Amino acid sequence: MESRLRVQGHPIQPMLVTFPFGLFVSAAVFDLADVAGGPAFLGEVGYWTAVAALVAAGLATVAGMVDLWDVRADRTRRTAVTCHLVNAAMAALFLLTCLMRAHAPQRGATGVELATELLALAVGSVGVWLGARLMRQYDRGRAAEPTGFEALGADIPGSTVEIIRPRA
Predict the structure, then answer these.
(1) How buried is residue 37: exposed, middle or buried, by Cβ count under 10 Å (0-12/13-18/19+)?
(2) Which of 30, 36, 74, 157 maximizes the CB count within 10 A of its CB?
(3) How many CA atoms lie within 13 A of 105 on its CB side?
(4) How far is the C-alpha of 88 from the C-alpha of 74, rounded, in Å?
(5) Prediction pTM value
(6) Helix (H, G, I), strand (E, B) or coil at 6
(7) CA geometry: angle at 77 spanning 72 and 81, to 5°?
(8) 82, 128 contact by CB (below 8 A)
(9) Which of the 8 DSSP states describes residue 150?
């Protein structure tokens, strides 16, 4: 799978996906601490962390849809679409909990909302696994890039962001 959106030759979408997933995990940890009896502000922090994760998920989705545009209709496309749908399901579950907490005075999580977030993280783990599978499929078709000190001497194009047309 060739990515159209790149920074220094690396696909942007896999980099963007790490932000919402990490923020969703952080939100669940804050909510767990709140439900376990921690200070009330932890629930507020968990809520706003989940909101930030939803914004980041929207950006990652846009980048993923741009990349999906040119994927051939084969096993790779099915895996990519499934990965996007699974990640959308995770975001939808977090959106549900955020909507339920939006009008609460402290925006703290309840046990049911925390359980929903943990379910969303389990669903999101499947999305991470599928995304890693896509990256392995993509990397098999590319030559190995230099690592360590060899990467310092590599030719780096002058542009830091480039949009390229994938090879057919």
Answers:
(1) exposed
(2) 30
(3) 1
(4) 21
(5) 0.75
(6) strand
(7) 145
(8) no
(9) G
